[in-house]
Amino acid sequence: KRDTYNFEVEGVNLFIHPADDKPPTPGWPEDVDHIAFEVEDLDVECERLTAAGYEVRGPSQFPWGRSAWLYDPDGRMVELHGPDIVYE
Fold first, then answer.
1. Residue 45: phi, psi to the nearest 5?
2. Are 11 and 53 a contacting pair, CB within 8 Å?
């Protein structure tokens, strides 16, 4: 059984889900425990964090939207998730 949990606390949505048992698709970050934050403008956040000295991988397009990854100062993986880019 693969349970998922979704909580909202004071406007913050926390979604917990198990990692897939299959290996990640090439080009995706390693399948490791991490925390993800949804941001309004992924490109702006990636630029801001890069300017602050963080090494940001992505953003990349995935079936669920766009994501980018970086490591916090303690070495934990952090995912930033943003909406798809809509091309007109």
1. -65, -40
2. no
What is the signed CA dihedral for 11, 63, 54, 12, rounded to 10 degrees?
A: 10
Report the distance separating Cα 39 and Cα 67, nearest Å. 10
- Three-state SS across the chain? CCCCEEEEECCEEEEECCCCCCCCCCCCCCCCCCEEEECCCHHHHHHHHHHCCCCCEEEEEECCEEEEEEECCCCCEEEEEECCCCCC
CB 68 within 8 A of CB 41: no
Calpha distance 68→56 (Å, rounded)? 7
Q: What is the mean pLDDT of each run of 10 residues along the chain (88 residues)?
A: 70 67 50 76 94 94 85 85 65
Report residue 14 as tokens: 């926390």
